[in-house]
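To: structure desk
From: M.T.
Subject: fold request, one chain
Message: Could you run this one when you get a chance? Sequence is below, nothing fancy, just the single chain.
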Amino acid sequence: MVDEAHHYAESGGPDPDETERSQRRKLGELLARRSDSLLLLSATPHDGYERSFASLLELLDPCLVDGGGLIRGQQYREHLVRRLKQHVWLTNPQTGSREKFKERKVIPVEINTDDALYRPFVHMHQRLLFSIVPELKRAMAARNYDDALAYLALLKRSASTVEALYLTLERVQARLHRLAGEQQERAEAKGQRLRTLRSLEKKLARFGSLSPDEEAERQELEIEDLAQKIRDVSLEARVGRLAAQQSRFAADTLLELKEAVEAARACDPKLDEVMRQIRSIRASEPEANVLVYTEYKDSQQRLVEALLAADFAQPLTLSGEDSEADRLTINDIFRTRSNQILVATDAAAEGLNLQYRCHHLI
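Reply: Done. Structure tokens follow.
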């Protein structure tokens, strides 16, 4: 029996960089050859590519797939059991009656920045966009999508927390100082970095999470990529004024942007809104458990600091840096005790049943 079986599929999209099959795929093929019966289990939807879905069917029975790697006819339906929540009935432990799954309530929360307190936050985003938008326009116009990756990474971090953006800029600045004493990057190294970064981005988009090592590698590659771009622009600017006019994102711009971000660190409206949401939950359910997901470890650490400053009890944390034993301990505490707040990264996205005593997810 294979859980999270979507990780055992081949990539369905056009991916010239993916020249090697994953270790999980190779394991799936080995198991398929040596198993009398094989169950592939997954709650992750079809990714839209027939080849990806067909590669899973191929593990069950190679005859379900044609010579081109695509599904052959409708025979595969005999091998497929599809269950949705509305198909499943539960037994209420209090009443013993049969019930359907409760409907999930998704409540979008608007972040209001009209308060004068958040002017530095608004100015930070305006300054960031002023620097990045011209670069994105140039990259897209030239169909140079690799150049857009690093700038998009900055935008993503700015949409997480101010702290995540600030610490990223600090790391980029530190890398720039080191680059000053190094020779210009070789083209082969740049090509390899971009290929790896693209591959990680595709995996994240497809599966929703990366391993701890992959997440750390992605962050380092994004920082390296941005530092190299800023360095190249700064070198060009020394040669002629035209280059400086064409690109706003030079080394001096990084310093100005970092100052704007630093001014906004004390007034992050998203953090304040999370505090309000948790207080609101606790006002109606004093013992309620609350689960908060953040994409970045930097945002996780900043949120924990904010919770402690707001006099909440020490929250639980879960990230890719935790050992398997620690993950099981944290899971057990959250599952068996009330009045808990768990702040988790994508490391908690799969394989843990956190809903046993929790129905509030932020």
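Reply (cont.): The chain has a mean pLDDT of 82. Let me know if you need anything else for the meeting.
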